Amino acid sequence: MLGVSPDTVRRRLTERGIDSAPDSGGVASIAGEDVARLAEEAASDSHLADLGPLAPASARNRLRGIVTRVVRDGVMAQVDVQAGPYRLVSLISREAADELALAPGSLVAATVKATNLGIEGVR
User: Fold this and answer.
1) Using one digit for the tens of pLDDT, what is the confidence trace for 5-37?
2) What is the pTM of this model?
């Protein structure tokens, strides 16, 4: 997802003091917010790798990315997405943001159509 080797991820986690201690099964996990922060940092360093295939859709301009920030108010939500080296910002309804459970670390597909940027949840 970050376009770097596991060793580089481990080094960056250690440099930033991010907890990635393995669980009882020996599997280390990282909070989505921390992955989002690393993605933002990596975007200035290099291009991120493709995050994998997307489900078919009519929109052709789709970019996989990770949510780095969500600001909700009564009706609307601002969603910031890091898609490779690109920072995208979308204004969507709060209801849509809530239904998609968008939060820093969420994987999404950003669709660009004319002057609109839509957000889709990725599972």
Assistant:
1) 788 888 888 888 888 778 888 888 888 888 888
2) 0.56
Q: Domain segments of the chain: what residues?
A: 1-123
pLDDT in tens, 94-117: 999 999 999 999 999 888 777 777
CATH of domain 1-123: 2.40.50.100
**89 pairs with which residues across the strands?**
80
> What are 82's two structure tokens?
């890091």
Sheet-wide strand order for 86-93: 86-93, 76-83, 62-72, 107-113, 116-121
Percent of the chain that is helix, strand, coil (3-state, to 5): 25, 35, 40
